[in-house]
Structure formats: C-alpha cells, structure tokens
C-alpha cells in the first residue's frame, strides 16, 4: 500500500447510512400520505426488492423511472396494500426529494476520513442518482473531503462497467496501480475495480470474500490497518 496515492469510495451503504436514512424518509412519507402500513413490515419487504431493481438498473435492463415506480408497486402488491398509481408516483417523487434530508453516516465515517485526508487524495464513485448524491454529500457535511465525485449518470454507464472507473481515474489524474476502491458491493465496487487494475477493499456485511486479491473489512475503521 506504500505506492497508493488516491482512495475512491462508494457512497450509499459504504459511508452514507442508506438503510437508516431511507427508513426515516418512508416514515415521513407514510405520515404525510396516511399510509396505513407498519413501517417495519414495509421495509422488510421493500429493501430486498429495492436491491433487486437496482441490480436490473445497474445492468441496464430498466430505466431510472421504471426503478422508482416498480420497487414501490411491487412492494405494495406483495403486502396486498391497495394503492393508486398516482399516489405511488407522488411517493416516488417525495422519496427522492426527502431522502437527502436525512444524513446519518455509517459508524466511523468521519474518523476514517479525517485519518485518510492527510495521507491520500479522496474521491467518490457512485451509481446513485446525480440529483441526490451531491446533496447527500453536502448535507452530511463530508463533501469537502473529496476532490473528485463521479456519478454513473455523468458517465452514462454504471459500476461495474469499466468505463466508470476509467473515467474516475482520468478525472483524478491517477493510475489504477496507485488507487484503492472501497465499497460494499462485491460485484459493482470490488470486482468492477479489479477489472481495471484498482485494488479493492470490500466493506462486507455478512460474509468476507475468500478471494486473496480482496481485502475484506467489517467496519470502516478496520481500513486504518491497511492504509
């Protein structure tokens, strides 16, 4: 790691506590729209459905508008909750608008960024929507840590497509051999980085990778022992 000069981070589920902030967003929307559903029951069904639709979106199989609508429609249908399409559209729009208002970070985020900022140049590569990712960074007060912020929408393709990582390297003016990618998604962040020669650190939730090319950590602060 002595030759490393730049560290790229994913944002959602890696630094920004997506699950917690998303839950608070739905709580606000359910109260406003008088959705008569238990929030925990909703989230238990919604979260895996959301991940699956994100996979489809990442693989270019659905468009952004379809993702936003279908993840909600599928969840309400599975819960046998009758709701009009017009209201789903309202919830979808409110969700995007409200989500950046909640800005909890994963444990250790600030401590890690403070530790790294004097040793490396820090950047973001995210598949999240352009209009909300930069607001998240600003509202959670971590924007100033990063020199380059690359969203998949600005590139036109999504991680793990090599073009996203190549674009980020070019923007940061660094070679792949001198960069690290930190992310929670084994496919999008870790394997995507490996494909272009960037060394990855996998922030895993349940099971670490057995691939010897991959550093696996279960908490952000564990990264300090490697960088």
Report on this structure.
It is a single chain. This protein has two domains: 6-16 and 103-225, HAD superfamily/HAD-like (Rossmann fold); 18-101, Putative phosphatase, domain 2 (DNA polymerase, domain 1, Orthogonal Bundle). Helix content is 48%, strand content 12%. It is built from nine helices and six strands; from the N terminus they run E-H-H-H-H-H-E-H-E-H-H-E-H-E-E. It has a six-stranded parallel beta sheet, sandwiched between helices. Helix 3 packs across helix 4.
Distance between the termini: 7 Å
CATH class of the largest domain, named: Alpha Beta
Outline type: elongated
What is the radius of gyration? Answer: 18 Å
The strand order across the widest sheet is 3-2-1-4-5-6
CATH topology of the largest domain: Rossmann fold
Q: How many strands in all?
A: 6
Q: Number of helix segments? A: 9
| CATH architecture label of the largest domain | 3-Layer(aba) Sandwich
Summed up, the domain count is 2
- The unreliable regions are none
Major β-sheet profile: 6 strands, parallel
**CATH level 4 superfamily of the largest domain:** HAD superfamily/HAD-like
């Amino acid at each position: 790691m002595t030759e490393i000069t730049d560290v790229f981070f994913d944002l959602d589920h890696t630094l920004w506590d997506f699950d917690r902030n998303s839950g608070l967003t739905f709580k606000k929307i359910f109260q406003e729209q008088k959705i008569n559903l238990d929030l925990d029951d909703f989230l238990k069904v919604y979260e895996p459905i959301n991940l699956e639709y994100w996979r489809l979106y990442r693989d270019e199989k659905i468009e952004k508008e379809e993702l936003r609508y279908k993840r909600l429609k599928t969840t309400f249908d599975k819960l046998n909750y009758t709701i009009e399409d017009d209201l789903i559209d309202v919830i979808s729009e409110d969700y995007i608008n409200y989500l950046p208002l909640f800005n909890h970070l994963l444990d250790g985020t600030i401590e890690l960024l403070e530790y790294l900022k004097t040793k490396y140049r820090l950047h973001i590569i995210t598949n999240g929507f352009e209009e909300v990712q930069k607001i998240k960074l600003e509202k959670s007060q971590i924007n100033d840590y990063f020199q380059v912020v690359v969203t998949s929408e600005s590139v036109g393709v999504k991680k793990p497509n090599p073009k996203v990582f190549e674009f980020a390297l070019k923007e940061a003016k660094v070679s792949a051999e001198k960069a690290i990618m930190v992310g929670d998604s084994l496919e999008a962040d870790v394997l995507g980085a490996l494909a272009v020669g960037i060394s990855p650190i996998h922030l895993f939730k349940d099971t670490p990778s057995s691939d010897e090319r991959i550093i696996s950590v279960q908490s952000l602060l564990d990264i300090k022992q490697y960088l």
